[in-house]
Structure formats: C-alpha cells, structure tokens
Amino acid sequence: MTNFKYILVLTLLVSAFTYADDTAIAEDKEKYCDFNLYLPAKSEGAPDTLLLERSDLSSLNTTTDNNTVQWTIEVADHALSKWKAASKEHIGLPMRIYCGDELISSPVIRAPLGKKFRVTGMDEGARRIR
C-alpha cells in the first residue's frame, strides 16, 4: 500500500509539471510572433510585397542598446539573391517589418543590403519577434 501512495504522489507531481509546461508554451505563442518583412509597392495603391519571412533567415539576434532594440539579421542562402536585388532597388524607401499583423518598424534602406545586416532604433515591441 505504501508503494501505491508513492506512485500516486509521483503521478500527481508529473501531471502538475506537465500542465505548467503546456501553459508556458501557450503563453509563449501569445507573447511571440513571426518575422515578416515587406517592401513598399512601387506604384500607389498596389499592395506591399512580402520579401522575407522567418523561414528566409539563417538567424535573427536581438540586443538592447540605450533602451532601444536592434536586430542583427542573416538572410538564408535560398533567399539571398532576391533580397540583394530588392534592397538595391528600394534604396531610400522603408521596409516594413511586421510581428504577425502588427507593424513593428519601418526602417529606411540606406544602401544595398547583403547577407547580414542590422536594424536599429526599435522599441521594446521588437523583442516579440522570433
């Protein structure tokens, strides 16, 4: 009978930890969102062009400097040629970075961008992107 009590207590503990993990995962999904980068349409009234999604990035690292968030982004090889061409054509125009449906940042492309680039000057909302 004593062994049965230990097994019952152990089962309850494992169930409690599993529930806590599931809750954390659900909160994580609400807290974080995916990266989407759009380039503005060249003609007025046309929709923006989705250029990069999270699956098109090799890495996205977030750091904070003087209370502003900055990303160091590395584009995956399969998306690199379209990225380089598009960034070259859109110098002086904003790229729009979304967290799901929410616009997070609209930095202006100042020069042709390569495989690795940095986006700076964003607020804390930018930390939600994975």
> What is the succession of H and E elements?
HEEEEHEEE
Number of helices: 2
Whole-number mean pLDDT: 77
Q: What's the CATH architecture?
A: 2-Layer Sandwich
The biggest sheet, with number of strands, parallel, antiparallel or mixed sense and barrel status, is: 4 strands, antiparallel
Give the strand content.
25-35%
Strand order, biggest sheet?
A: 2-1-5-6
Stretches with pLDDT under 50, minimum 5 residues? 16-29
**What integer value in Å does the Rg equal?**
21 Å
The oligomeric state of the chains shown is single chain
Described by the principal axes of the CA atoms, the overall outline is globular
Helix content: 25-40%
How many E-type strands?
A: 7
Structure classification? alpha+beta
Count of the separate structural domains? 1
Termini gap: 50 Å
By CATH, the topology is Gyrase A, domain 2
Signal peptide: 1-20
InterPro entries: SecDF_P1_head
Domain SecDF P1 head subdomain: 51-124
Keywords: Signal
Describe what is shown at a glance:
The protein has 130 residues and is α+β, with helices and mostly antiparallel strands. The chain has helices at 2-31, 77-89, and strands at 35-39, 49-53, 57-65, 68-75, 96-99, 102-105, 116-122.
Which labels suit this protein?
alpha+beta; 2 helices; Gyrase A, domain 2; four-stranded antiparallel β-sheet; single chain; 130 residues
Can you offer a commentary on this structure?
A hairpin with a 2-residue loop joins strand 5 and strand 6 (102-105). The protein has a single domain (24-127), classed as 2-Layer Sandwich (Gyrase A, domain 2). Residues 16-29 have low confidence and may be disordered. The chain is an alpha+beta fold. Helices cover 33% and strands 32% of the residues. The protein is built from two helices and seven strands. InterPro entries: SecDF_P1_head. Residues 1-20 form the signal peptide. Residues 51-124 form the SecDF P1 head subdomain domain.
